[in-house]
Specification:
Blueprint lengths: L9 H9 L11 H12 L2 H43 L5 E3 L1 H7 L6 E5 L2 E7 L5 E7 L6 H12 L9 E7 L2 E7 L7 H4 L10 H21 L14 E3 L5 E3 L4 H6 L4 H8 L7 H4 L9 H16 L16 H10 L11 H17 L10 H9 L42
Parallel strand pairs: 1-5
Antiparallel strand pairs: 2-3, 3-4, 4-6, 5-6, 7-8
Helix pairs in contact: 7-11, 7-13, 7-14, 11-13
Bound molecules: adenosine-5'-triphosphate and magnesium ion.
The site of magnesium ion (MG) has 5 residues, from loops.
Main location: membrane
Pfam families: Pkinase
Protein name: Protein kinase domain-containing protein
């Protein structure tokens, strides 16, 4: 057996090999094998340096791969959100955890209404949203989802866009497009902001809102009655373009309930329609929204609430009554320094609004007719009868079924209408 070949000639080694040989090896650990292999490749300081780099590099590489993987997943969600938004498809369902995250734990509260609180939020794509955290609605989870799906199919330039929703047990939320100029009430009822919007802009807002309601009434697959048209529910986008908010919410809450009890609970004082209070005026129909629209327009023209117990003159306490008399008698409406064009717009808005707030629903125009009135020549508009009567009527809380009255002819306008 040869212990070492050092000092042996090539011939002697050859002869020894010719005699035959056997191989043996020791079992070595994986680590020592790694050292052996690496050590064979790199010797000295360079080798240790490379080993160190490998030991530090591999975990870093792993962290990077995991990070990239998770970002890849997120950006896929961004794309889904963007796609659903741009193609006007159904709203996205979010988990409550996601809703909490997008609102930074409900940090920035925008306001509170009859259905719950509204918070500002941001989607992963950077898009700003308003999240309405609902007080629990009467409907079960599945009813809520069905309603949301139908609301989510409604798309119009003058109706707020529902981006998504969340339903997790009793937690329910709706995620809307954020409207950067907030709600109309914050402009027209605020001392410092009320002159932000000129008459032309106000007139455009009135037209936009009329278009939005007309769409809800007859432009989409199902008729949606809003039942809560008021300045707080008119949201203004970047260019003060108006969008109607909270449509469909009445329905969401009305599951298994009658319209009357819903509105008695949810409706807003000052905007409740007469037929809700007085029976024998006719059933509740889309004309209820027409009435609230008329009240809204008068508040926009007056840039004040219609009922103001603190008005300077007692005659001004109920603005619609005061403005009707002035207009009827051809008196100055005390609306400041206005041009002739602005006078025309104001006159159109007031006359149309007075048609809308007629006591009998059958005397009110449809929203489609309202639009025609606003877009017509002012000379063709006739002043309606004064809509405020002493009401010799019985009060009622009875439920009337939704009526689709076809009684436009009673609107006493010129032949064009
Ligand atoms: N999409 C939105 N973008 C920006 N602000 C919003 C949005 N939705 C709601 N807000 C703000 O949140 C406030 C509260 O809205 P919310 O609808 O809860 O109450 P409301 O309109 O005053 O009453 P109601 O419950 O009768 O609708 C609004 O007045 C508005 O300023
Ligand atoms: Mg609202």
């Amino acid at each position: 057996m040869v212990k070492s070949i050092s000092g042996m000639s090539t011939l002697a080694i050859y002869n020894k090999l010719f005699d035959g040989f056997y191989l043996s090896w020791h079992k070595i650990s994986l680590l020592s094998h790694l050292y052996f292999v690496l050590g064979a490749c790199f010797s000295g300081i360079t080798g240790y340096f490379i080993i160190l780099r490998l030991l530090l590099g591999i975990p870093c590489l792993l962290v990077l791969v995991i990070y990239k993987w998770s970002r890849r997943h997120l950006s896929m969600d961004d794309k889904i959100e963007e796609f659903l938004q741009s193609h006007n498809l159904t709203p996205i369902r979010y988990s409550f955890k996601e809703v909490k995250k997008m609102s930074k734990n409900f940090k920035d509260k925008l306001g509170e209404g009859g259905y719950g609180s509204v918070f500002k939020g941001k989607l992963r794509s950077g898009h700003h949203v308003a999240i309405k955290l609902l007080c629990t609605s009467k409907g079960k989870g599945q009813d809520f989802i069905n309603e949301v799906a139908s609301i989510g199919r409604i798309h119009h330039a003058n109706v707020t866009k529902l981006i998504g929703f969340c339903v997790e047990g009793s937690k329910q939320a709706l995620v809307y497009d954020f409207m950067s100029n907030g709600s109309l009430d914050k402009i027209i009822f605020s001392e410092e902001n009320r002159n932000t919007l000129g008459w032309k802009k106000l007139f455009d807002i009135v037209i936009g809102v009329a278009r939005g309601i007309d769409y809800l009434h007859q432009g989409c697959d199902m008729q949606i009655l809003h039942f809560d048209i008021k300045p707080h529910n008119i949201l203004l986008g970047a260019n003060f373009n108006p969008r109607i908010s909270d449509f469909g919410l009445a329905k969401l809450y009305a599951i298994d309930e009658s319209i009357v009890s819903l509105t008695a609970a949810r409706g807003t004082i000052g905007y409740i329609v007469p037929e809700l209070v007085y029976k024998n005026l006719g059933g509740i129909s889309y004309k209820a929204d027409v009435y609230s629209f008329g009240m809204l327009v008068l508040e926009m023209v007056g840039r004040r609430k219609n009922l103001n117990p603190f008005a300077n003159h007692t005659s001004q306490i109920y603005f619609p009554s005061w403005i009707y008399d002035r207009l009827d008698q051809g008196e100055d409406m005390e609306l400041g320094d206005i041009s002739d064009d602005e006078k025309v717009m104001i006159r159109k808005m007031i006359i149309t609004a007075f048609w809308c707030i007629q006591l009998l629903p059958s005397d009110r125009p449809s929203m489609n007719k309202v639009l025609k009135m606003l877009e017509s020549n002012v000379e063709l508009l006739k002043m309606p009868p004064k809509p405020f009567h002493q009401l010799p009527l019985e009060t009622s809380t009875e439920v009337h079924s939704c009526e689709n009255s076809n009684d436009e002819e009673s609107v006493l306008l010129h032949n064009q209408f």
